[in-house]
Amino acid sequence: MAGIHTLSETERQVSVLLKNLPIDFDSMAVVSNLFRAANAVKNHLERTVLAPHDLSWTGFVVLWVVWIWQPIETRQIAAEVGTSKASITGVLKTLEARKLVIRKQSKTDQRLVLVTLTKSGEKLMKELFPEFNQEESTITSVLAKSEIKSTATSLRKITEITQQS
Amino acid sequence: MAGIHTLSETERQVSVLLKNLPIDFDSMAVVSNLFRAANAVKNHLERTVLAPHDLSWTGFVVLWVVWIWQPIETRQIAAEVGTSKASITGVLKTLEARKLVIRKQSKTDQRLVLVTLTKSGEKLMKELFPEFNQEESTITSVLAKSEIKSTATSLRKITEITQQS
DNA sequence: CACCAATCGTTAGGACTCAAACAATCTAAT
DNA sequence: ATTAGATTGTTTGAGTCCTAACGATTGGTG
Questions:
Q1: Which of A13, A147, A158 comes nearest B41 by C-beta?
Q2: At CA A133, angle to CA A130 and CA A134, rounded to 5?
Q3: CB of A1 within 8 A of CB of B163?
């Protein structure tokens, strides 16, 4: 379902195009596989878990963050999710239209907007997250227990080095 | 710069919300770190390598695929990049407006559109890809050589199991 | 030869992404 | 007390993402 060409075919072609330049193919493979994996997992979870509940990936992630940390401010949602405040504003508008979340202005600081789940939002998450986690288990079942730990560690290292610049 | 809460804080909170349900936190950590890493790496590369050339992530990826496999059909670009044909149409329109790619109708099959790089497109990629790969090296330098191999392998396994359903 | 089904790229509409600019609000310094 | 600066959430505009529907083209079959 992915590309027609394999990674090694691609590497050979890059070598042809950049004859004399030294290319770090091992690093290229890590980064390339990182995005392939993230995309594949995202698509898989959207189809198997989220689509039956008519929920988008971002919608679910925002719902999840609110579920865990409610009441939570918009800026904090953005920080947890890893996107901009502007994006969160749009997603919240969608979720609010579906009666899954509620926006309320803070009394101590009127600039802040506090977000909480509605009753049906809570019900949805209590049902949805175990399904989601079940599928996460299925996905990682291709890895040995030690691989699961080491992969998580490697990914965390990559995240850390990448963020501090 | 990411979330305020750590992963273990999140796990504790999930335990509180789902008291009696068994949750696979190790798998959750892998999936969570997968998306954090992909996002962080993407943002990092956009800022350090792509932004100076006024290029978006998707724009670069499409340019890269065309550079390697030109002349290439629209449907093949979509397959390599991992998105829909419709998305590619939009991105190509942007890239064509910047005079980086050329669209040309196939003579043997008039339904097909063949895409190639312009001179300036080729010049850009010959300059840009080594920079990009250099940064990939920097990112993976937090990992030992054996970790680089095993991480790439684990990610490939995840991609494969996830795609076949 | 004429039709039918498959396939190509494009368009339409809705959701999400960002950066930049904005009004409202709070805080700190004078 | 008042002004200046910082911060919050929102809006705007351009770009990207998807699915679904569309016209154009092709190939096979009756």
A1: A158
A2: 85
A3: yes
